[in-house]
Amino acid sequence: MTSNFQAKIEGLQYDALQIRRNVWRALHGAGSGHMGGSSSAADLLAALYFHYLRQRPDEPEWPGRDRFVLSKGHANAALGAALARAGFIDDSVLDQFYAYQSSFGMHPDIKMPGVEMSTGGLGHGLSVGLGMALGARMQNLDFRTCVMLGDGELQEGSNWEGAMAAAHLRLSNLTAILDYNKVQQSGRVGEMLALEPMADKWLSFGWAVREIDGHDMGAIVEALDALPFAPDKPSMIIAHTVKGKGVGFAEDSYLWHNNLVTDEVYERALNELGAPE
Amino acid sequence: MNGAQTPEWERLAENQSRLAFGLAVGELARRDRRVVAISADTIDLFGLRGFLEANPDRLIEAGIAEQNAMGIASGLATTGMRPILCGYAPFITARSLEQLRNDVAYANQRVVIGAACGGIVLAMAGGTHHAVEDLAIMRNMPNMTVIVPADARQTWHAALQTEQLDGPSYIRLGGKFAEPPVSDSAGDFRIGRADLMRPGGDVTVIACGCLVAPAIAAADALAKAGIGVRVLNMHTIKPLDRDAVLAAAAETGAIVTAEEHRITGGLGGAVAEILAQEQPTRMRMIGMPDEFAIVGPTARVREHYGLSQTAIMDACRALLA
User: Fold this and answer.
1) What is the CATH code of the structural domain delimited by B8-172?
2) Is the preceding omega at residue B56 within 30 degrees of 0, hence cis?
3) ipTM
4) Chain A: nearest CA to B111, how far in angstroms?
């Protein structure tokens, strides 16, 4: 590993830490929120926004921009934190989570700069991203489309319509990233409605699949840099993650899918995450 | 028509709104490279076989998967494409309703939805294939324009005029049989403006879709009895032509609405919502009751539920009694 690469990874890890700290900050301001799925996605979002996606924060409608759709819209606190850090929105917006007339609600709103689609209803993002990827191909544009999926939302059948169609249409400019934290609102995914074998499902649908540790920044960057995984297939990155990653008491527990954030909880969470240098 | 030659699109449409819509897709695609058709296994239902052969890269076949088709349409629209989704009314409004609400209406994307076999066009198929709540659903979608053309000619013009809309639109279409033409091909049609089909000062019939022709026939029959029936073709359910409704209420004092839809939440509901607040007016609503419709030949089932000239005449007389 070169020192340049190592410095890059450390920088992205720092970005991820800032996203996590701002997730808890936003939730604390709102009084509650989805810390679990926002924290599991933080490393992936950091790699996307600060390494992979070609975007212009000062020109959010730039036609050539890569598209990112947060299909698991309940992780919007993490998306907002990434968008603020990237410069799409002002940092002060993070203190407006759930606030009266705010553009920063529980779920992404297309009216917020940098948000490509309003999401929140589960099982929507893959089809919308598929349409974006088609739009690129039909207009000979070279932008790439990434959709972040949650594991729980894969229980919605619409995802599998999208999975079928994306492979049928050979959309190699479409990437799905699964934040596979294995916990949903009411319990463990495997106990609620099992999804395994995950990789085999996507392979059988005609996708090119890679599995990584979704908290290993080096592995995330290497996977993103290897896209597309096949010249004529959509790519799936199955990122194994930990719900609530970074805050021990909230990790791997459905109780911290969406919970209250008191002053005391917020202080404990920040202590666990560690202060930024 | 003044002896002018029948336009090619009108000849090819054979008085079927679903074919007129498909032909308009081709015309829109000729005008604008961004236009793309999306089929949900509906290529022949919309007469798109020729379009597909001439433009193989401008038609996306989504298969029997309306949820995905609706999401694709939204995603395409965000990139500046002009997607036209061609579906069955009962499925595209119900199966993919959440995609329609979230991805299309909430995100306010320029998606045109053509919905064939609206109402009880597929009466023989049973309640799974009836679309008699679609207008109530679509009317409750902010940003959505909702159109029920009265014939193939209006369908052509309505589809072409969606070019001017900034948001999504829903156009309800018929099935695989001819619909009697009630408008002229020249295209005086304007989205959002009711067509005055017959003047009259005693009572107004506000109709849409396949009820416009019976409404005109009812007015002509009642005219012979000295009753002046105004007939409005309210092809645009949303935004509703409020001025035409309020003028009819003020000038005729009695309103009959007629639609191939449940009487809850459709055209009649839209008219009543305005009148109840602005100008309470005696009304009768012709439409389907709160039940799943019987099976049978479409014409016979329409008669069964009083979607007819006779029922419209009876309603007019009742209001004047």
Assistant:
1) 3.40.50.970
2) no
3) 0.95
4) 12
